[in-house]
Amino acid sequence: MEWKPEEEGLRQILTLLKESQSPDTATQRAVQQKLEELNKYPDFNNYLIYVLTKLVSEEEPTRSLSGLILKNNVKSHYNSFLPEVAEFIKRECLSAIGDPSPLIRATVGIIITTIASKGEITSWPELLPLLCQMLDSQDYNVCEGAFGALQKICEDTAELLDSDALNRPLNVMIPKFLQFFRHSSPKIRCHAIACVNFFIMSRTQALMLHIDAFIENLFFLASDEDPDVRKNVCHALVLLLEVRLDRLTPHLPNIIEYMLLRTQDAEEAVALEACEFWLSLADQSICREVLGPRLPALLPVLVRGMRYSEMDVILLRGDRDDDADEEEPDRDADIRPRFHKPRSHTIKHNVGGGDSNMSGGGDSDDEDDGGDTDSSLSDWNLRKCSAAGLDVLANVFGADLLPVLFPILKETLFHDDWVIKESGILALGAVADGCMVGMVPHLPDLVPYLVCCLSERKALVRSITCWTLSRYSHWIVSQSHDLYLRPVMTELLKRVLDNNKRVQEAACSAFATLEEEACTELVPYLGHILQTLVFAFGRYQHKNLLILYDAIGTLADSVGHHLNKPEYIGLLMPPLITKWNVLKDEDKDLFPLLECLSSVATALQSGFLPYCEPVFRRCVSLIEQTLNQNIANTQSPEQFDAPDKDFMIVALDLLSGLAEGLDGHINHLVLNSNLMQLLYQCMQDPMPEVRQSSFALLGDLTKACFQHVHPYIPEFLPILGMNLNPEIISVCNNATWAIGEISIKLGPETSKYIPLVLNHLVDIINRPNTPKTLLENTAITIGRLGYVCPHDVAPVLQQFVRQWCTSLRNIRDNEEKDSAFRGICQMIQVNPGGVVADFMFFCDAVASWSHPKEDLKEMFTKILHGFKNQVGEENWRQFTDQFPMQLSARLSAMCGI
What we know:
Layout: H1 7-19, H2 25-38, H3 44-53, H4 60-77, H5 83-95, H6 102-120, H7 127-134, H8 140-156, H9 158-161, H10 170-179, H11 186-197, H12 205-209, H13 211-220, H14 227-243, H15 245-248, H16 252-262, H17 268-282, H18 287-291, H19 295-305, H20 310-315, H21 382-397, H22 402-413, H23 418-430, H24 432-439, H25 443-453, H26 459-471, H27 473-478, H28 481-496, H29 501-518, H30 526-539, H31 542-559, H32 566-582, H33 590-604, H34 609-635, H35 646-662, H36 667-671, H37 675-682, H38 688-704, H39 706-709, H40 713-722, H41 729-746, H42 754-766, H43 772-788, H44 790-793, H45 797-808, H46 815-830, H47 839-846, H48 854-871, H49 873-881, H50 885-895
Helix pairs in contact: 3-4, 3-5, 4-6, 6-8, 7-8, 8-11, 10-11, 11-14, 14-17, 17-21, 19-21, 21-24, 22-23, 23-26, 25-26, 25-28, 26-29, 28-29, 29-31, 30-31, 30-32, 31-33, 32-33, 33-35, 34-35, 34-37, 35-38, 38-41, 40-41, 41-43, 42-43, 43-45, 43-46, 45-47, 46-48, 48-49
């Protein structure tokens, strides 16, 4: 029997569908509830598909809504549909695929795709053959509807379509799609290219067999009159550049000309897609060769693409130059989510030996932000893509870009139209990273010019100037303070208090970048800086406050203990603590404030003592609440939501800051709390970031108040041993560091725990491609274990000594290095044979010391002379003849050898 709806049921559902379009939220809630109840009736979904496909008398939005509700039901409950209901829905979808209404066709396509993605594509074998057959229909609606459905299926299940499970339908589908590239309807041409494009990145074999036909067809469509077709052609060429450069190479000069044209397309969506091509091309080794000759044509196009459109200026209220004191508060939707970076233990390097960033471009997260920090424009757009394109090309061509760029900059930077001038300043910032060396001779003129632009009338010019100046902060800091750093800083701080919110934001971010570069160079100006930042507290609205916390935290990281002066503390702490007291425990604004306080506590050291108790207690309470909520959620998920573990991570990190800054003063706070029990739970959390931060805190507490850690060692060390997994680098890194800190305090008692950790550490130090920080921490910890238990570690000396020596040759003299080298010396005394094969590396590592303590120097001398006496004068001379001059000189000066 064919299913038929009952009049009454149909009437009810139609009423509901109409009510759900009501703007009133109470009505919508009531509708939601009724829909949930109706889901209990097995044939409710039959009614929904019936309204969508058969009730042509109803308005299209009502029919489409019925289909979207059905789509959600399929998504949530398809596996519990009765077989006859599922069959009915599939049949109806296929019969309605050619509905005269584009909206209804699209809705039917979405339902088909949703069913297919529920794993049903394998148990609905007739679907793909039928859809492919419908493509040949003389009825345009049927062909377009089928193509629309196929496009969605290709997007959602591309991998499955290329698998043996379905007998590789793409072998039929791809040649079929290619036939429609020259169809008379632009919509169909668009579908055809879009379908094939989904298979480029995976190098699908069926497509690779027809790659030449595909490229030939793309060229045929290059100047199609339909913008969507042009956009899809550009997208295909961008993808092919990454995947099949070999096939495009003979055509590249023509493709470059084509993309130059398309990057200037009147339709922004096409221009944006074409502009991506330059980003992709910059990744290819042939970029310099093929693009060099066309830079004079390309750069003006990119810089033009960086201009704000009239629409942008309206959206950004670019004609309004002061909005900071308006009553209109920031909307939560405009505030980007922040991501906390958990603490990671790193080691300071000797200059030149480390990986300090000498490029002159700070490595901030929003490198190519192009200064649009407004959410209405935070989507990727032509301006940002053009700026990113110029940035990557500057990195490819370096100073060779400048002869082409300078005439453009001369024209734009001094233009009367502020929109053009603004794009020139953005271009100047975009090339900072790649062209730094070539820019240096021009910066003495450009930086003062930019400082003047900070007082421009137009807010959008002031804000982009902040960003551009920050990109040159490395140079600014290394010059005469009077000529550059001071004027830049003075003007930037004025902009921190600008009357325009966007300028405040850009200035605050730029100032944070300057702080990172300048570090202690800022100490003479601290009073003025703090007065400005604290004054901003009173003025800033919600969104910019979050950036202000960041600027204050960065300042604390940059100047360290220089902040610990009563007058600075008196300025800085009251507004921070006021905010701290106002924010509720569940307010996410606590994250940036906690991060900021963590930096401030570490910098102020004893100066933070008056504030530490309430801060400590609240952090412990945040950790406890999060853990309790997590347990509640695990036991009854339908009743309790999962907690946001970021609260716990940030609280652990702030406690680390307190432990590091206050040192022994944290003792009584830990004593009167349940922190150690909570830490034990955090160390076993499934989320890596929680473990990472808990191991950092464990290491800091070990240094600050070991008496509270000691009783827990038997529980803690096995957990640390289980986390020595280099696949999760930051967790492994902090666990390794904590083991080293514990061993130093625990002394010879560490012996019984060595079997839990030593093999893992030796494996890590010998792994290829281990990140430098992890190698260094691992070497230090192995050295420390050997220092406290030389007899336990020395037998395997030969397995790690070469790697150990090369890992530590670049790090600065410090306590960690001292204990590690004492360990290696003791191990060599226990097992001298273990170092013989790699003695040259040991000599090199010893020479990396600038000023070892006297007794450590004696250890080095004893080992070197012992080795020399053992091998005899002649062999020793042959051995040392292989040394570089510098090494011989260092060793002779240090050990008299």
